[in-house]
Amino acid sequence: METFNKKEKEKLRQKKRKDKQEKKEDRKANAQKGQSLDEMLAYVDENGNITNTPPDPRRKRQINEEDIQLGAAKVESGPAQDVIHQGVVTFFNASKGYGFIKDLQTQASIFVHINALTEPINEQDKVTFGLTSTPKGPNAIDVKKVA
């Protein structure tokens, strides 16, 4: 004894099978046999666009292999900045080992790590420090308390 659901599933299977067979026959009937190699080729023009016409050899550019850069561009560091900045420690967590210094000249917030300290610091201490640039922004180095 078949239920309504089983009959519907069987009808769907039959319909899918029939559609698949029709598509197969249609592909066979409309298939172009033996396209020539020239019709199947694609070319890239001088701007990098894909075309069906061969590129003009007069527009060919010579590229030096040494000029090709793989990966990210190297950051060329400028001259070392030996400028001593002054600031105030706005936040420092000794247990986690980091904090922030507010530069008195630029009012920028500079990250400081415990490894960059020459002596222990606390919040609201006036300090002098140097700057180094990192991918995440400027970091304070050689941090010293001002007496």
Automatic annotation (TrEMBL):
Residues 1-64 are annotated as: Disordered. One of its GO terms (molecular function) is DNA binding. The keyword Lipoprotein does not apply. Residues 1-11, 19-29 have a biased composition (Basic and acidic residues). Signal peptide: none annotated. Residues 84-145 form the CSD domain. One of its GO terms (cellular component) is cytosol. Keywords: DNA-binding. CDD domains: CSP_CDS. It holds the Pfam family CSD. The keyword DNA-binding applies. SMART domains: CSP. PANTHER family: COLD SHOCK DOMAIN CONTAINING PROTEINS (PTHR11544). This is Cold-shock DNA-binding protein family. It comes from Spirosoma endophyticum.
